[in-house]
Design goal:
7 helices, Metallo-beta-lactamase, Chain A, 21% helix, binds zinc ion, alpha/beta, 7-stranded mixed sheet, single chain, globular
C-alpha cells in the first residue's frame, strides 16, 4: 500500500494547499480519502482524475467534502467529451440523508452507504470503520491489504475505541488539530500529545500528523506528539509517498 497526503489543513486550505485528504493506492487501484477544499487541484498532481476508482468520506463537514461537486463535474465533462469513465462509487455514512443523497450525481457518481459496523472490500482493500467523537457522525477508517494496515483517525477528540481499532497498525495517520493549551477546550479534536498517546497505546509502527491548525508553529504539535509516543512521528508532507 502507498498513501499520499493531498492536503494537511483543518477547516480551510492555506494558499495553494488543501484540507486534510489522502490518496491511497495498491495494485493499481486508487481510492481518495475525503475530498475537501483544494483536494481536486492537489489530486491532479498525482493521478489523472479519470483514473480514480473510489472515494471514501469520513464525515460531511465542508473541509472533508467541499470538492465533491467539482469531482462530479469533472466526470460529467469527461462524459461530454466522449471519455466516459466508470461510475465512481462514493462511500459515505447514511445518518445524514440530505448529504448522503448528494453523493449520487447523474450517471457519474453513486453514493454507497456505510456504517461503523461495515467491513467492505473496496478494490484490493479491506476497509473497516470506528465511530469517532466529533460534533457530527464521523468514521475513522482502517485500510488493510496483504497483511499491512493503515489507520486514519479522521476528525475526533480523544476516543477510547480508537486504541483497539488502531492496535498494531503499520501506519497511523492521526488528526492533531490543537495546540496543548487548547486541548479539552475545542470539542471534536485532539492535540499532538493525544495523537501520540493513541499511537503509543495502540503500539503502531509509525505516526503521521494531519488536520493541522493555521496559527502558531506546528512543530509544537510534533513535539507534543513526540512527548507521548516513543516511535517515529512526523508532520504529514503533501506529495510524500508513505509506504506500508
Ligand atoms: Zn469535522
Amino acid at each position: 500500500m502507498k498513501i499520499i497526503p493531498l492536503g494537511i489543513w483543518g477547516g480551510y486550505p492555506k494558499a495553494n494547499g488543501a484540507t486534510s485528504s489522502f490518496l491511497i493506492e495498491h495494485n493499481g487501484f486508487h481510492c481518495l480519502i475525503d475530498c475537501g477544499s483544494g483536494v481536486l487541484a492537489s489530486l491532479q498532481n498525482y493521478l489523472p482524475l479519470d483514473q480514480l476508482d473510489a472515494v471514501v468520506l469520513s464525515h460531511y463537514h465542508a473541509d472533508h467534502i467541499a470538492d465533491i461537486g467539482s469531482l462530479q463535474y469533472s466526470r460529467l465533462i469527461q462524459f461530454y467529451l466522449g471519455e466516459q469513465a466508470p461510475v465512481l462509487p462514493i462511500y459515505g455514512h447514511v445518518y445524514d440523508e440530505e448529504e448522503f443523497a448528494k453523493l449520487t450525481y447523474k450517471e457519474q457518481t453513486i453514493g454507497v452507504g456505510i456504517t461503523e459496523s461495515d467491513v467492505l472490500s473496496i478494490g484490493p482493500f479491506t476497509v473497516s470503520f470506528c465511530r469517532t467523537v466529533h460534533p457530527v457522525y464521523c468514521l475513522a477508517m482502517k485500510f488493510e491489504a496483504d497483511g499491512r494496515s493503515i489507520v486514519l483517525t479522521a476528525d475526533t477528540e480523544w476516543c477510547d475505541d480508537l486504541v483497539p481499532f488502531a492496535t498494531g497498525a503499520d501506519l497511523l495517520i492521526s488528526e492533531a488539530n490543537l495546540y496543548e493549551e487548547h486541548v479539552g477546550k475545542a470539542p471534536g479534536h485532539m492535540g499532538g500529545s493525544e495523537a501520540g498517546k493513541l499511537a503509543e497505546q495502540a503500539k503502531v509502527k509509525h505516526l503521521v500528523l494531519t488536520h493541522l491548525p493555521h496559527h502558531g508553529d506546528v512543530r509544537d504539535i510534533l513535539a507534543a506528539a513526540s512527548s507521548t509516543y516513543s516511535g517515529h512521528v512526523e508532520i504529514a508532507e503533501v506529495g510524500k509517498k508513505y509506504l506500508s
